[in-house]
DNA sequence: GTTGCAAACCTAGGACCCTTAGGTTTAACC
DNA sequence: GGTTAAACCTAAGGGTCCTAGGTTTGCAAC
C-alpha cells in the first residue's frame, strides 16, 4: 500500500479544513485520520495529541490571517489602511470559521512551536504600522491597538454566535463601526493619568 | 440511599461551577454526575444531552451577567453608566470564565428554552437605556450598541486567551478604551448613507 | 396505613474517541 | 543488496456519550 506521505503540516491542514467544514469541536483525531486515509494512531507520529493539533491549527490561522491583512493593506495609509485591515480580518473569519475559532482557545500552544510562527509578531508590526498615520505615541498607541483588535475580534465573534438580531444588517453596522473608529483615532482623548479619578 | 433531588436547574448550576473551575471543554456528563454524586446516565432525566447542558449554561450566564449589569448601572447616567456597564461585563467574565465561554458557542440552544430566559431581552433594553444620554437615533443607535458590545466582548475574549502581551497592564488599556468610547459616543460621526463610497 | 404511580435513579451495554505499546513495512542511503 | 529510520499498522485499555430497560423512592389519594 502506498504510503500517505504525511507530515505535521499536512495533518494540520487537513484538520483546519475539517474545522472550517464541520466546526472546530468536531475535529477529532479519528476524523482527521479518516480524511487522510490513515488510521488514527498513525497521526501521533506527526502530532503530539489533539490539544497540540488544535494549537497548530491556531498558529496556521494566525499566520494566514496576518498574511491576508498584509496583502490587503499594502500601499494603503490612513483610513484606507484601517478599512483594508479590518475587512481582511473579518473576511478571514467568515471564510475560515473553524480556523478562526481555534485562535480563540486559551493558550496551551507549545512555546517552541509558537516561536517559529511568524504570524503573531508580524501582526503586531502591521497593526502599529497601520496606526502610524494617526500620530499616536505610547502608551496611547498600545491602548489604541488593543481597542481595535478588541472591536474587530468582538464583532466577528458576536457575528459568528448569531448575537446580532436581524433588524439591521451586520454589514451596515460594520461599515459604521469603521467610520467611528477612524473618527476616534483622529480625536483620541488625551490621557489623564495621574489625576485623581 | 437518599435521593439527590436533582433538577435541570441544579444540574446546570453544577455544570456552570465546573466550567468556571476547570474550563468549559472539561465539562462532561460524567464529571457533572460525579460532582452531584450520581451516575452519568441519571442526568438525562433532567437534560437532553451535553449540547443542551452547554446551552443551559450559556443561558444561565446571560441572565446572571445581565443582572449584574442592571445592578451596577442602576441610577447611573452618561459616562458613569457606560463605565459601570462595561466594568460589570468584564468582571463577570473574569469571575466566571467558564460560564462566559459558554455564551460564545455558536447557538444551538433550544428555542423554547431560550424564550423563557429573560437575559437577552433585558440586556438589550439595558444597553439602549445606557446610551439614551448620548442622543443617538436609529439606525445609529443600533450600530453604536453593536460597536460597544463588540469591544467589550472582544476585550475580555482577548484577555482570556492571553492575547495581550505584558508590556502594559490590560487594566490601563481598558480604562483608556472606555474613555475613548465615551468620546466616540459624544462625537458619533454623521452617516453618509446613500453617498457614493 | 396501604396502595398506586410517576418520577428519580440505577445497571448494562454499544458506539465512538484518545492514546500508548509494540510490530511491520517502506523508502532512502551506503 | 543490506541497513536503518521513519511511516504506518494492529491491539488494547480507558474514557466519554447516550439509550434501553429495570428498581426504588416519595408523595398522594383512598
UniProtKB/TrEMBL annotation, chains A, B:
Pfam families recorded for this chain? TetR_C_33, TetR_N
Q: Does the keyword Amino-acid biosynthesis apply?
A: no
What is the source species? Answer: Streptomyces cinnamoneus (Streptoverticillium cinnamoneum)
UniProt keyword annotations, A-Z: DNA-binding, Transcription, Transcription regulation
Its name, as the record gives it, is: Transcriptional regulator
Entry keyword annotation includes Transcription: yes
Q: Which domain of life is it from?
A: Bacteria
* GO molecular function annotation: DNA binding
Amino acid at each position: 500500500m502506498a504510503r500517505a506521505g504525511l507530515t505535521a503540516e499536512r495533518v494540520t491542514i487537513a484538520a483546519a479544513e475539517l474545522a472550517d467544514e464541520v466546526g472546530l469541536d468536531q475535529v477529532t483525531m479519528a476524523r482527521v485520520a479518516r480524511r487522510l486515509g490513515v488510521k488514527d494512531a498513525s497521526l501521533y507520529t506527526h502530532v503530539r495529541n489533539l490539544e497540540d493539533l488544535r494549537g497548530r491549527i491556531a498558529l496556521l490561522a494566525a499566520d494566514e490571517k496576518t498574511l491576508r491583512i498584509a496583502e490587503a493593506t499594502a500601499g494603503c495609509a490612513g483610513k484606507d489602511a484601517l478599512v483594508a485591515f479590518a475587512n481582511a480580518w473579518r473576511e478571514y473569519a467568515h471564510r475560515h470559521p473553524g480556523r478562526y475559532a481555534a485562535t480563540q482557545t486559551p493558550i496551551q500552544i507549545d512555546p517552541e512551536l509558537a516561536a517559529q510562527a511568524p504570524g503573531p509578531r508580524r501582526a503586531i508590526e502591521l497593526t502599529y504600522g497601520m496606526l502610524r498615520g494617526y500620530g499616536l505615541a505610547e502608551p496611547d498607541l498600545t491602548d489604541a491597538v488593543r481597542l481595535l483588535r478588541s472591536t474587530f475580534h468582538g464583532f466577528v465573534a458576536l457575528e459568528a454566535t448569531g448575537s446580532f438580531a436581524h433588524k439591521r444588517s451586520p454589514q451596515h453596522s460594520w461599515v459604521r463601526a469603521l467610520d467611528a473608529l477612524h473618527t476616534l483615532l483622529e480625536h483620541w482623548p488625551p490621557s489623564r493619568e495621574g489625576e485623581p479619578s
